[in-house]
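Worked example (supplementary).
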Amino acid sequence: MEENEILAWIAQSVKACPSVPIGVGDDMAAVRLEPRTGTGTNLALLKMDQALDQVHFDLRQHTPCAAGRKAVNRCLSDCAAMACIPAAILIAVALPRTADMTMMRELFKGCQAAAAAFNCPIVGGDTAIWDQRLAITVAAMGLSDQPVRRSGARAGDALCVTGKLGGSILGRHMDFTPRINLAHRLAGALNIHAMMDISDGLAMDLPRLMAASKTGASIDGSWVPIHEDAQLLARRDHQSALYHALCDGEDYELLFAVDFDDARQLVLFDRDVPISIIGRVTAAHDELVLVDDHGQIQSWPKGGWEYKGDGRQ
Amino acid sequence: MEENEILAWIAQSVKACPSVPIGVGDDMAAVRLEPRTGTGTNLALLKMDQALDQVHFDLRQHTPCAAGRKAVNRCLSDCAAMACIPAAILIAVALPRTADMTMMRELFKGCQAAAAAFNCPIVGGDTAIWDQRLAITVAAMGLSDQPVRRSGARAGDALCVTGKLGGSILGRHMDFTPRINLAHRLAGALNIHAMMDISDGLAMDLPRLMAASKTGASIDGSWVPIHEDAQLLARRDHQSALYHALCDGEDYELLFAVDFDDARQLVLFDRDVPISIIGRVTAAHDELVLVDDHGQIQSWPKGGWEYKGDGRQ
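After joint prediction of all chains, the assembly is encoded as:
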């Protein structure tokens, strides 16, 4: 059973509903708050994400605090993807029977630090104890009148990513900054046609953006910003650094489509986070092209991070 | 580690926030949607609940469909407790590695049937696979301008419950109707001062309502509506049927406080669901009194359903 298979089945099983302008298949769902009329915010953006022990973190090497922080940050990264303001967080924990109040406190400290960094209140949740491993589930509500969807990319747009990709497994996957502030600044300065966060790797996530926008893409491999961690992994396992940048996942950077002229102004947009043009949106629906250093067309890598359970490390 | 201990610690750890008029400690949290002004609904009610295999259901005897239905209904029961309209459901599942698409489909069918019964759209969620047991986490967003809180009970009020209590373990805990429609009718017809749903048993939940309202209560044991299932269990294990009605939990009925005069009109309020006056709110903060058939004062039972993991059945 593959994640994409499950997602596809769920997407076609859920009925369309007039109060839900954005349903399954984007980074967050949107629920209309005022079907009649109103002056305030009229969309609630909703998202839920799990972080499971020995899948998304590993308590044998990570602290409960780091696990809690990651669980919340994963959800906040989706708020960045929609460029919405996180307004509330809920946290459910299924605690192993060996858990004590110290572990619970540490876990919650991590959750709170992550939420507080974006002034997002933790408003509730649920705790239960079982004889299985720790599961942390986080739901986020964001508010926005104009969330940025996955579906607005147009042929000719530039495709851009924030930060550098690959090798997050060396540590960044546990400790990253959701790009909320950057997303708001980008959405305020430019007309972003489509955006998502890169959680499963560009190799798996770019096809999702393209499918939602009914477009294709041509990516120049030499333009993909490769993280030093990807270089390091490449030296160890003899995969290419580009392969790691495309397939490793858990980058939690933003992938977005804008007019090419807008994209050109982004080189110095942020002092700390580089923004790179990595290619172009094309009209060929679902066709993904990867061009290498020598101008040769390569097949799009099949990799990307799927929920495989153990063996993550 | 006890549930109440965890809850108390979380409640005091979460900072007050002006955009969160109802935080941790009620059936749902409320988040203000329009801090300035507005004509539409101005509160989003949020809740998250877990249903874990061999804690809240048991796949060795229950179908995935029944598990999914229960997981969603538990959350909808909280919407009833606040008398709000369920507007969106999110579902996260951590699937055991042995799960296949058939199980996933069955599970989702149960979720969908429960949500559809109240016209509540399922708007998103998350799936992951691990080598542990099935965990289903459900988040609900409800909408209301005037949610009914736990904190409004006044000395002299009648305390009422819907339905009959006890013995849910014989089957009702897997298949119950969240009292959403009844809650809306009650809230439309009466001024309900305080309300909650009975999920952990009256023995544990009544003290929570009283603590929130800073009152006490006097309950007449002979007025507590005892379910036939509680009678059946009592014959088996020689506990009293009243003990089962107070302590078994997972009734998912409503407990509420109203003016005594209003309460008297409730006898025939609903054709299908009996409503019973079980006692009175008293001014003695946190003091709970149980009066038996002979007018003798009994100590309040210490029982109630806590998350103990295995051995639930």
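Two points are worth noting when inspecting this output. DSSP finds eight helices and twelve strands in chain A. The two ends of chain A are 21 Å apart (CA to CA).
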